[in-house]
Amino acid sequence: MTVPAYLSADDLAKLIRDSSKIPGIDYVVVDVRNEDYRGGHIKGSINVPAHELHLKAPALAKKYEKVPLVIFHCALSQVRGPKSARIYRDAVQDALVTASQDSPLFDQQINVLRGGFNSWLYRFKDTEPELIEAYDASVPRDDF
């Protein structure tokens, strides 16, 4: 298992638009923002605040062991997102120690969304607002 790679917003959007792909089965988007999660998130994503990931990573690895692609992000994907992806990767590596040879975890890809949610919001809020759930323009954000 390598260092988590970056995934572009366009590549993730293509995956989400694909009606044959199901969140939680074909991929999972993990939003690790804390309070800044309020006001909108990527369609189909789950929220696990970064400060909780050390405790929750082993359970996430077990819950999503059959999911081939796990994508992490925060507001900008500069600190919390990449760090969370590494914490999750370490939990997966720990799980692989006792996993059977045919465990799907061996092939799981772990990515970080390039630019994070702020970039996602800027890219899609006007052109494809359906890719953003619970959007609230009144929630303050860092500049993007």
Automatic annotation (TrEMBL):
| GO molecular function terms listed in the Swiss-Prot or TrEMBL record | protein tyrosine phosphatase activity
Rhodanese domain residues are 26-129
- Keywords, in A-Z order: Hydrolase
Q: What is its EC number?
A: 3.1.3.48
Q: What class of enzyme is it?
A: hydrolase
Which InterPro entries does the entry mention? Answer: Rhodanese-like_dom (IPR001763), Rhodanese-like_dom_sf (IPR036873)
Where does the source fall among the domains of life? Eukaryota
Q: Does the keyword Hydrolase apply?
A: yes
UniProt keyword annotation of Glycoprotein present: no
Matching Gene3D superfamilies: Rhodanese-like domain
Gene Ontology terms, cellular component aspect? cytoplasm; nucleus
Protein name as it appears in the record: Cdc25 phosphatase Ibp1
